[in-house]
Amino acid sequence: MLDIRLYMLQRISALIMAPLTLGHIAVMIYAIQGGLTTAEILGRTQGSVLWFSFYGTFVIAASVHAAIGLRVILSEMVTLPRFALSVFTWGSCLILLFMGARAVSAVTML
Amino acid sequence: MSSIPDMMDVSIWRGDGTFGQFESFKVPAQESQTILDVVAWVQQNQDPTLTYRYACRVGMCGSCAMMVNGVPRWTCRTHVKKVLVNNNLEVGPLRNLPVIKDLATDMDPFFDKWVAAEGVHHPTKTRDAPIEPILPTNAGRVEASSGIECINCSVCYAACDTVANNPDYLGPAALQRAWTVYNDSKDANKQAVLDAVSGVGGCHNCHSQGSCTVHCPNGLNPMNAIAGLKRVTAMSFFKNGK
Ligand code: SF4
Ligand code: SF4
Ligand code: FES
After folding, report:
1. Ligand nearest to the CA of B59
2. Residue pair B148/B218 in contact by the 8 Å Cβ criterion
3. DSSP letter string, B9-36
4. Domains in chain A: how many in total?
5. For residues B143, B145, B151 and B154, what is the CA-based torsion angle, rounded to 10 degrees?
6. What is d(CA B101, CA A2) in angstroms, rounded to the nearest whole number?
7. Is the per-residue pLDDT at B2 higher than 80?
8. pLDDT category, B5, cuts 50, 70, 90?
9. Do B204 and A7 touch (CB under 8 A)?
10. What domains lie within chain B, and their CATH numbers?
11. For a pLDDT cut of 70, what percent of chain A falls above it?
12. What's this model's pTM, rounded to 2 decimal places?
């Protein structure tokens, strides 16, 4: 149940996520090399506009991407009216956004 | 005739899509025997009420496709020797289409989707204009030529799991036709084709796993055509926002 709009949204969100994922892994590896403590990590991320935008963008892209993916899986497993499918897609997107926003705000807000 | 026993066990679907069961027949094995020969033998010698469809018997008309041991095949060009398992054959109606009776399916949904995919010619000229020569080596012509040998047999449509799961999906053959029309330099309305393949049943639902290409008896590659449509619709999306 993908039209061109959802298809492009899923592709573009994947394109956005790819470099962010690599950046995230690079930071993880860097952070554990020198044995940074949680407090030290939070000291660098809290109040940082850069990290807020980095993980904020990540969360938005991942929520859009995953919601569309789940929509495809669900639509192929059970027959649902298109409206129910849209509710499910939006619902998954909002739940993921909410959970992601909580995490991002905990790590980057003062 | 070496290794084939004299009689084969053949199960044939009897009934419609909702009610029915496989019925067993003993059919004499012969040299150079096709699945269509087996079905015809049963109808002529065992049960004249058996319903099935064929026309050309040489792989041109696309009307004889059935499920043979669970795989969609053109039965007039499928040799028994190639598909016989433990001296057994199971012949059923084509998957993903409503069954009219026994082995005959209603192919209307398949053909309706050819029209829905805008697989029709949009002329650039009138019939009085001189014929415009197109070089066979022209890139668009090469793409278009790769899909024109389709015999509309619906084997790819039966093989496609996306069709099975999404009744709106236009399916490999119709989308391949749309790709052919799109690449025809004598076609005047390419945007109509792109619009037709961009909706909820459009090319973007294809998982690119290629069952269509594996099973197409004519060796065509609908999966490749669909990938082409995805490419050009994505470009058109960036250019025109649709
Ligand atoms: S590649 Fe696409 S069209 Fe072909 S069988 Fe798979 S989903 Fe269907
Ligand atoms: S693409 Fe191949 S399998 Fe599909 S309808 Fe055409 S000839 Fe048959
Ligand atoms: S009878 Fe025409 S393709 Fe098989």
Report:
1. 3
2. no
3. EEEEEEE-SSSEEEEEEEEE--TT-BHH
4. 1
5. 0
6. 34
7. no
8. low
9. yes
10. 7-105 (3.10.20.30), 108-240 (1.10.1060.10)
11. 100
12. 0.91
pLDDT digits (tens, 9 = 90+) for B96-109: 999 999 999 999 99
From the list B160, B168, B165, B153, the residue with the least C-alpha distance to B209 is B160
* Three-class secondary structure of residue B3 per DSSP: coil
Which residues are within 8 A (CB) of A101 and not within 5 positions of it... i.e. 6 or more apart?
A56, A59
Out of B208, B214, B221, B229, give the residue to mutate to test ligand 1, the one with the largest number of ligand atoms within 8 Å of its CB.
Answer: B208
Please give the residue range of the domain that contains residue A99: 2-108
Q: State the burial class of residue A29 (Cβ atoms within 10 Å of its Cβ: 0-12, 13-18, 19+).
A: exposed
Pocket lining: B146 vs ligand 2, CB cutoff 6 Å: no
As given in the structure block, the two tokens for residue B154 are 């619906």
- Closest CA in chain B for residue A7: B204
Q: Is the CB of B158 under 6 A from ligand 2?
A: no
Query: In this structure, which amino acid lies at residue A46?
Result: Q
Does ligand 2 have an atom closer than 6 angstroms to the CB of B216? yes
Q: What is the CATH number of the domain that holds A40?
A: 1.20.1300
Q: Above 90 in pLDDT, residue B153?
A: yes
Q: Is the pLDDT of residue B1 over 50?
A: no
DSSP letters along B158-186, please? HH-HHHHH-TT---HHHHHHHHHHHH-TT
> What digits encode the pLDDT tens for the residues A4-58?
999 999 999 999 999 999 999 998 888 888 778 888 889 999 999 999 999 999 9
**What residues in B contact A75, CB-CB < 8 Å?**
165-166
